[in-house]
Design a protein that fits this description.
This protein has 423 residues and is an alpha/beta fold. It has helices at residues 17-28, 47-50, 68-74, 91-103, 106-130, 134-137, 152-160, 162-167, 179-183, 207-219, 262-268, 329-342, 387-403, and strands at residues 10-13, 33-36, 54-55, 83-85, 140-141, 145-149, 172-174, 193-197, 201-203, 222-224, 229-235, 238-244, 247-250, 253-256, 276-286, 296-298, 303-308, 311-320, 351-361, 368-371, 377-381. The longest helix has 25 residues, at 106-130. The radius of gyration is 21 Å and the shape is globular.
Length: 423
């Protein structure tokens, strides 16, 4: 292995949106930063390339909500379920599911919502500031988001949550008669009702990732693509060197933000993280004649529609099926059936791209951010399916924790050892 000519202050493992925002805030604090990405930036292996890119205050409810207990009992083992769990002889999966069940309580869900909405609001502020730059501004859209409900029960249940959401800082409201037609005059919906969040926004990916990386390089961040970590050299409780496919690095601090591969990397450093890879899918098609002009969530079906100019991205599903990234034709067909259920005038258009990716998820839906294991290792992972909306604030928190300064956000609910088993 060759040694690097100039060793950085901080090595960030992972070049997805989480790792890049860590690098951004660390560099702004004055650190010399190197980012190691196992593949290509914005490549197909990254969840920062094919997802819907949602940011803003929508989606702050943790995955482990109270109603998920009944879903676990009734539907999660069926391959067509929006959240599908493939049971297998996997000790860590079973342990994850046990903690998931414990987190499905009203008190845990309320606490998780407060933490996530705070992170999302801070992230939105940071994104608005970042995207004032002309080059990256074109990758950020903030037209609001429409939440549609197919069933009367689903709409009624969602409407009852509006006061709590508003009290928590989310500008959610019920759309009155005719308002949906005013917002989306070209799209006909077959639904019971809809809500609207004026703070709904999204990033065009992978365009945002590529433009952000160019900005970071201009700031002096060293980004190494196709560079995988192969081992940690730990001595007296401190990481002394990182061994990689691109050479060795002497390090002062290491930030682990490697997405679904964080568990494997952590094991090299001698620690265990309670994460599971949750697979999501997207299919990008030519914009149909009656396609929406702003993001739309088909709530009961857990499907999102995001307009990308002459294209429409359809994203959704949650699968606990291990580290496989194969695209299931059955899943894609099910997603399109859901779209047709909500949009009766839906017309098939040519497919531009199909994609699946793995999101690192914790049982309680909150990320893992903080010191873990070796004293100079900081973990920043576990964002689940809402990583785009959490990464800006998470990167800022990482920079504060490494510098020892007072963080804007409370790190206690995010501590990596809250599930135990970290030496």
């Amino acid at each position: 292995m060759t040694r690097r000519d100039a060793d950085p202050d901080v090595v960030v493992i992972g070049g997805g949106v989480a790792g890049l925002f860590c690098a951004y805030h660390l560099r702004r604090s004055g650190a010399a930063v190197t980012v190691l990405e196992r593949g290509a930036l914005g490549g197909p292996q990254s969840c920062s390339t094919g997802n819907t890119g949602f940011v803003g205050t929508h989606g702050a409810a943790p995955l482990a909500e109270p109603w998920m207990r009944s879903m676990r009992a009734l539907g999660m083992l069926h391959p067509d379920a929006p959240f599908y769990v493939q049971l297998r002889a996997d000790r860590e999966l079973l342990r994850w599911l046990r903690y998931f069940g414990r987190a499905c309580t009203p008190a845990a869900a309320a606490a998780g919502f407060r933490t996530l909405v705070g992170m999302k609001k801070r992230s939105l502020d940071l994104l608005v500031e970042l995207c004032e730059s002309a080059d990256i501004a074109a990758t950020f859209e903030s037209p609001g988001i429409i939440l549609t409900y197919k069933t009367a029960r689903g709409f009624a249940d969602a409407s009852r949550t509006v006061p709590r959401a508003v009290a928590g800082g989310v500008p959610l409201r019920v759309l009155g008669a005719g308002e949906l037609d005013e917002l989306e005059p070209k799209t006909r919906f077959d639904i019971a009702g809809a809500l609207y969040n004026a703070e709904g926004a999204y990033l065009r990916v992978p365009e945002f990732i590529l433009e952000f990386a160019r900005m970071l390089r201009d700031l002096g961040v060293d980004i190494r693509e196709h560079t995988a970590v192969t081992d940690f050299e730990v001595d007296a409780g401190t990481i002394r060197r990182l061994h990689t496919t691109g050479g060795d690095f002497r390090v002062r601090d290491v930030v682990l933000a490697a997405g679904a591969w964080s568990t494997e990397c952590a094991q090299m450093a001698g620690i265990e993280l309670l994460l599971q890879p949750i697979k999501g899918y997207s299919v990008t098609v030519d914009m149909p004649p009656g396609g929406p002009s702003r993001p739309v969530l088909l709530s009961e079906g857990r499907i999102a529609l995001v307009p990308l100019g002459d294209r429409l991205r359809i994203g959704g599903t949650l699968e606990l099926t291990g580290m496989r990234t194969t695209v299931s034709a059955r899943r894609l067909d099910g997603m399109l059936r859901t779209v047709r259920d909500y949009l009766p005038d839906w017309a098939e258009t040519p497919t531009r791209e199909t994609w699946s990716g793995l999101r690192p998820a914790t049982p309680d839906g909150l990320p893992l951010i903080g010191r873990a294991g070796p004293r100079n290792l900081l973990v920043a992972t576990g964002y689940g399916h809402i990583g785009m909306g959490l990464a800006p604030a998470a990167g800022e928190l990482v920079a504060h924790l490494l510098a020892g300064t007072q963080p804007v956000l409370d790190p206690i609910p995010l501590r990596p050892d809250r599930f135990g088993r970290i030496p």
